[in-house]
Design goal:
The structure is a homodimer of 295-residue chains. Chain A is of the alpha+beta class and 295 residues long. The first copy, chain A, has three domains: 96 residues, Nucleoside Triphosphate Pyrophosphohydrolase; 82 residues, no CATH class; 74 residues, Arc Repressor Mutant, subunit A (Orthogonal Bundle). Chain A is built from nine helices and nine strands. The first copy, chain A, binds a DNA duplex (30 and 30 nucleotides) through helix 8. Chains A, B: It comes from Gluconacetobacter aggeris. Chains A, B: This is NrtR DNA-binding winged helix domain-containing protein. Chains A, B: Pfam families: WHD_NrtR.
DNA sequence: ACCTTTATGCTCATGTTGAGCATAATATAG
DNA sequence: CTATATTATGCTCAACATGAGCATAAAGGT
């Protein structure tokens, strides 16, 4: 069985991060590596274009997973080589889903997300109390505190996978919960796809801090508020407006188009475009965004 | 053909980063994923222990490579899932090689390394001039400037892979040079192993900036200068001594043992140990080292 | 003429970083 | 025994980055 190539294709539409899915949101585009593929990445591109009609822009490898061996099962294992891809949505394309539909607790810009985390923390504290030994209970509590930012640690938006794995272990998601048990809100997916999506979210959130990949998700021209909302949507965290602008300005990665955004409320905002030329010519010192990651 | 698991096992010995090799330094430990392996990582551990007798400590996945398809060759491709592993050398173990034996230009702490880069840059400028079009020449020059830190950009120690790939394209390494042509100093390896090693070096250099992985390479107790020399050896860059100490101190990741280093010249140095307990208990805000990455 | 809304400029306290001066505590050469 | 070399360690300073917030500008709507 050849390894499978699997893509997490991300776009942001109306300030919501979206992921391209198949089969009613249960699967991600994927297909086996074939002899004719010139490289892993070309194989991936072919599969995604074939299955979704969507061409890929920025692509990077994420992680390679193998499923657990089955006793008495086949000798061959399913190996998945996963990729993160960034694009823009096109009107009318089907299969796009909001990524917070799968991970509602990851959206800390919305009050519902924050309330959900409160609920989750209570459930996880119960779970921690059910550990067999006292040391085990303490270890579980510490893990909950770290991944969910308790005890003044603060929410770390990059711990998407760690949080998902914790919820899996605590049997709070349908993938691991016993049949009929209460589970958290949020769509699940087939096989390991939700884990792959979590990996992609974590990588993208980490990456926008130090590489200007956010512009892969922006249209040709945009206002500064639009850019900020996009970053906030990806990070799932609000930001300080003036500081955001100061930072973006000093990066010198965008320039004014000279136009002004149409149909806005309030004072009209200037439009900007990404200076794609500078990408090669300069080292990008740090596109570190004012996404305060607390101590 | 199942995917192959391949390990880059790193240790630092006498302030030199070492890599564990087989076959006279031509190969890295590796073996196919088998049905009995519980996971990719267990498979890797089994292979490395079997081939080298060395147990693995900290392990992380690096990247998955596929070799290019051969026209009329077999349908199946070789897929390599590579890992970075960190340990301590043990006296008398065979197969350890200095990683700068393979990449002499990556050691910018030594005058020879800096001189070699000067020579490489001249060769690459010739190569840039041989591009067919004027635009192609300019693109090549810009790439050389970026990867080797010309025009005041400064040396970026994380660009190990980019530099190796550039040298490959310019046919300055034995892997790509025509037979008999002059090539750069530095050992080469079989297959794609040198590329895998470059990937590992880049990852480790990046990682020591924001995670305390350097302590995986240290003995139980060490002086601050020993720690600094280890970081410098990995990064291939010198550091400011007082600032290094200030940073390490404020991280609060190490504590004094109360003892003093034996057989040193100069004023005796206090010994420290890594506080392994804090690893789980605290978020490591930033183990960012004073490795000035220039603008 | 006001109010709401968004855009934009500016200040200020605090923290971080790069550089270097100064002094302390050893061993060894003479 | 003193000078010198060598490493350890404490401390200062300027430049810059960061987080927070005040103030004002420019639109549309009541």
């Amino acid at each position: 069985m050849p390894p499978e190539l699997i893509a997490v294709l991300i776009a942001v539409s109306d300030d919501r991060p979206m992921v391209l899915t198949l089969e009613g949101g249960r699967l991600l585009p994927s297909g086996p590596l074939e002899a004719g593929h010139r490289s892993l990445q070309t194989g991936l591109r072919l599969w995604v274009e074939h299955q979704t009609g969507h061409a890929l822009g920025h692509v990077e490898q994420l992680y390679t997973f193998a499923d657990a061996p089955v006793d008495g099962g086949p000798d061959e294992r399913r190996v998945m080589i996963s990729y993160l891809a960034l694009t823009r949505t096109r009107r009318g394309e089907r299969g796009w889903r909001g990524w917070y539909d799968y991970f509602p607790w990851e959206d800390q810009t919305a009050p519902e997300g924050r309330a959900l985390v409160q609920r989750i923390v209570r459930l996880l504290e119960d779970w921690a109390g059910r550990a067999p030994s006292a040391a085990g209970q303490e270890a579980r509590r510490q893990r909950v505190a770290l991944t969910f930012g308790l005890d003044g640690l603060g929410w770390d938006d990059e711990l998407v996978l760690q949080r998902y794995e914790l919820l899996w272990e605590a049997a709070l998601v349908p993938e691991s919960a016993p049949p009929g048990a209460a589970v958290l809100p949020g769509l699940s997916m087939a096989r390991d796809e939700r884990r792959v999506l979590a990996t992609a979210m974590a990588r993208l959130r980490a990456k926008i801090r130090y590489r200007p990949v956010i512009y892969e998700l922006m249209p040709d021209s945009f206002t500064l508020l639009h850019l900020q909302r996009t970053v906030e949507a990806v990070a799932g965290q609000p930001m300080h407006k003036q500081n955001f602008r100061r930072l973006v300005a000093q990066q010198d990665l965008i320039e004014e188009t000279g136009e002004v955004a149409p149909d806005t409320r309030g004072r009209p905002a200037r439009l900007f475009r990404f200076r794609r030329e500078v990408m090669g010519a300069r080292r990008i010192a740090g596109s570190k965004l004012p996404l305060a990651r607390p101590v």
